[in-house]
Amino acid sequence: MSADVAVNPQRRGPEDEAYEERAFGFWLYLMTDAIIFALLFATYVVMAPNVASAPSPQSLFDIWHVAGETALLLVSSLTFGIATISMIQRKKGQVLLWLAITFVLGAGFVAMEVMEFAGMIAAGAGPGGSGSLSAFFTLVGTHGLHVTMGLIWIIILGLQVMVKGLTMPVTSRLFRLGLFWHFLDIVWIGIFSVVYLPGIM
Fold first, then answer.
1. Tally of CB atoms within 10 A around 165
2. Number of domains in the chain
3. What percent of the chain has pLDDT over 90?
4. Which residues form the domain of 138?
5. Residue 1, in any domain of the structure
6. Cα separation, 4 vs 159, whole angstroms
7. What is this structure's pTM?
């Protein structure tokens, strides 16, 4: 069901069906993205023992840094959920406020990830150091790139909400962005469980 039908459950027409088709198409995109991440996870699991002469990624993990990244992303998913509720309630100001908070939290996550990568490279554990490091940087970096694209998307939709208001096209796009953002949260939980947690333990 699209966000527009959720806002106006009694109103259905050609436009509603068109937006539902777009939502379905976006679900298909998320499925293909999930397959890509599944392949990256599988590659990391296979390559993780191949550390060669470089430091292993696990030896450089900082539990507090990883915990901070995780907290920022999980809370950002909550704030985006509140933005969605505000959208359904047609509260434009609240939508903009919670989107802004979500953006700040997501930007903080990306900044911490860049700091982590820079620290690892400075310690001689760059992506070219070993198969394990290549798989690590590819998996975690791909997720970080997705979050960055999500941040750009938040800016664009925030501007659309300001200029156009909560119109049907805008709420439909916000709904799809919500699907994307929560999907990234799920992927991060997988990264935390498969990549970071075994190394920290």
1. 12
2. 1
3. 67
4. 10-200
5. no
6. 19
7. 0.86
